Each structure stands twice: as structure tokens, then as C-alpha cells.
């Protein structure tokens, strides 16, 4: 059993009573992180980092500094730290968009050891995000119909040291072949086309709506599902509207549904949809 134990500003990564690593924090500053050599490049450091920040209530976009060293820099660069004035600084502007909203929702509900599905793997950003949330003891299934996307996702996961994902080249219409009903803790649908690839291949409501229905059935009670619905182009608008109509019809006795339309923003901003399957009373 893997856990992160907190002792004031020190966080210890513990497995079966053995300390595999530690991380130290001061207000606004990560002062050190160390993982035993044999446990490196397997996602344990990432798990420790995420858990320590979560337990400290430090948000994903909050400014943090760290000492700059050859040992720390390659690890911390994965989390947005950059060299600045002789130290490493993580300073991402606080953004509120469809992706940050669904990621925040997923981070609230998913944790170590859980099973998550990325129904549109693309370049693997969401798959990697899910791997970070469920940790090395969890499991992620990622699907995409494009071999290039499957390859990009596998490469991204390998470069980040995530080994807990199964990446399959298949349509999310076949999701039921890969998971049993009631076993999924979280499912992610980031709709649209693969950035940087053929824009002629994109998600369509003829398959995404049945896949959403299936994913909801596969969720355990209390499980969550998110959608980022892009409205770019005629196809995007058609799919966004079909998804909005679909979620509007979900029975409120079974699902809690939150949609943010960003109606004050110009253009056609992507719409984040966050769904939680209710636990029966
Ligand atoms: C917006 S991208 C996903 C971005 C991705 N989640 C990421 O983090 O990079 C949408 C992806 O859906 C894929 N897609 C389209 N139709 C699909 C289907 N029926 N089943 C699974 N994936 C599909 C596309 O190939 C594309 O890679």
C-alpha cells in the first residue's frame, strides 16, 4: 500500500512501512525532493509531488520556487518550473477555461488506486494528467482511432515514466469491450480533432453520444465524467449542441450535471461539462 505521510513540512512516500522518498516544503518554496534510485522513473516522484501539494492545499497554478540544481531541474521542469534569477520558479497565470475546469473537477474526485478512462487520447495530455491523479497503483485506459495519437500518447507517457496506462487504437464506441459496468471512477472526453494532425478526423456525435451513454453506465456510483465540447467549425457546433442536448436530458435523480457556457466571452469557447453519478440513497 502506497501513501504519503506528512510530518509538518516534510512528506514521506511510504510503501509497506518503508520510506521510498521524501519532499520538503516551506511556504511558497519546495526545498527538496528525493526518491530512492530503484523507484525513479516509475511515477513515484510525480505521485509524491502531487500528493504533497494537494495535502498542503497548494493549487496547480500557484507560484512556487525551488533551488536550481542539476538533480532537481529535469524533474521539476515537468511541472512547469523554469530557471529564473538563480532558482526554479513555477509561475503559471491562473487560467479559467474548459480544460482547467474539467481538470480541477477530476482532481477533486480521482485519487490513488482508481481506474480512469480517457476516451479521446489525442496527444496524451489528459491521459498523463489522469496517470498523475491515480498514481502508480491506479489504472488508466486511453482510446483513440488514430494510430498517430496512440503513438503520441504512448511516447508522452513513457517520457513521463507512467506505466499504468493501457493505450488502445479503437473507437470509444467500443468502450464497453474494455471495462465492466460499475468499475470506472472517472472518464474524460476531450472532443474535437487531434491538434497538429489531419483536421479531417474528429469526434462526431454519432459515436460520441453512444460512447457517453456507455461511459455513464460503466461509472461506479460517485464516479465522474467530464466533456470538453469544442464548437469550432460547423462540425464542432453540431457536436457541442448534441452533447448539450444529451446532458440536459440526463435524469437529475441519477446524475449531477454542471455546464459552464462562458456566455460573456467572444467567439465559440469550448464548453466544459462535469457530471457526477449520484450514489443511490
Ligand atoms: C481534441 S483531441 C483529444 C486531445 C487529448 N485528450 C489530449 O490530451 O491531447 C480528440 C481526439 O479524439 C480522437 N477521436 C475521434 N473520434 C474518435 C473515436 N470515435 N474514438 C476515440 N477517439 C476518437 C481524435 O483522433 C483526436 O485525437
Detailed description of the structure:
The structure is a single chain. By secondary structure, this protein is α/β, with parallel strands linked by helices. It folds into 2 domains: 2-90, Gcn5-related N-acetyltransferase (GNAT) (Aminopeptidase), CATH 3.40.630.30; 98-277, Rossmann fold (3-Layer(aba) Sandwich). The chain has helices spanning 44-56, 73-77, 98-109, 125-134, 147-160, 205-218, 233-248, and strands spanning 2-7, 10-15, 18-26, 29-35, 64-67, 82-84, 87-90, 115-118, 139-144, 165-169, 184-190, 219-229, 255-259, 271-277. The strands form 3 sheets. The chain has a 7-stranded mixed beta sheet with strand order 10-9-8-11-12-14-13, with helices on both faces. The mean pLDDT is 93. Bound molecules: S-adenosylmethionine. S-adenosylmethionine (SAM) binds at residues 120-126, 143-146, 149, 171-173, 190, 192-194, 201-203, 207.
Q: Helix and strand string, N-terminal first?
A: EEEEHEHEEHEHEHEEHEHEE
What is the residue-averaged pLDDT? 93
The first-level CATH class of the largest domain is given as Alpha Beta
Low-confidence stretches: none
Give the termini separation: 30 Å
What's the domain count?
2
- Overall CATH architecture of the largest domain: 3-Layer(aba) Sandwich
Derived from helix and strand composition plus strand pairing, the structural class reads alpha/beta
Oligomer: single chain
Instruction: Label the overall shape.
Output: globular
What is the CATH superfamily of the largest domain? Vaccinia Virus protein VP39
Got a strand count?
A: 14
Strand order of the largest sheet: 10-9-8-11-12-14-13
Amino acid at each position: 500500500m502506497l501513501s504519503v505521510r506528512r510530518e509538518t513540512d516534510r512528506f514521506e512516500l511510504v510503501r509497506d512501512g518503508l520510506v521510498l522518498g521524501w519532499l520538503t516544503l516551506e511556504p511558497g518554496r519546495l526545498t527538496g525532493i528525493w526518491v530512492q534510485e530503484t523507484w525513479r522513473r516509475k511515477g513515484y516522484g510525480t505521485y509524491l509531488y502531487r500528493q504533497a501539494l494537494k495535502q498542503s492545499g497548494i493549487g496547480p497554478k500557484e507560484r512556487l520556487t525551488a533551488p536550481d540544481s542539476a538533480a532537481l531541474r529535469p524533474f521539476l521542469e515537468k511541472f512547469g518550473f523554469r530557471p529564473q534569477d538563480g532558482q526554479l520558479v513555477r509561475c503559471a497565470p491562473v487560467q479559467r477555461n474548459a480544460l482547467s475546469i474539467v481538470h480541477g473537477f477530476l482532481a477533486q474526485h480521482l485519487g490513488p488506486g482508481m481506474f480512469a478512462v480517457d476516451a479521446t487520447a489525442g496527444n496524451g495530455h489528459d491521459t498523463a494528467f489522469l496517470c498523475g491523479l491515480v498514481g502508480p497503483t491506479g489504472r488508466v485506459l486511453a482510446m483513440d482511432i488514430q494510430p498517430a495519437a496512440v503513438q503520441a500518447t504512448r511516447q508522452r507517457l513513457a517520457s513521463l515514466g507512467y506505466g499504468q496506462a493501457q493505450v488502445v487504437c479503437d473507437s470509444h464506441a467500443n468502450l464497453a469491450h474494455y471495462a465492466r459496468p460499475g468499475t470506472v471512477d472517472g472518464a474524460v472526453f476531450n472532443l474535437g480533432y487531434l491538434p497538429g494532425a489531419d483536421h479531417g478526423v474528429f469526434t462526431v456525435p454519432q459515436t460520441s453520444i453512444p460512447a457517453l451513454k456507455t461511459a455513464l453506465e460503466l461509472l461506479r456510483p460517485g464516479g465522474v465524467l467530464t466533456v470538453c465540447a469544442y464548437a469550432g467549425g460547423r462540425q464542432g457546433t453540431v457536436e457541442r449542441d448534441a452533447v448539450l442536448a444529451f446532458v440536459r436530458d440526463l435524469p437529475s435523480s441519477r446524475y449531477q450535471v454542471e455546464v459552464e457556457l462562458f456566455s460573456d466571452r467572444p467567439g465559440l469557447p469550448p464548453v466544459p461539462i462535469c457530471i457526477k453519478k449520484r450514489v443511490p440513497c
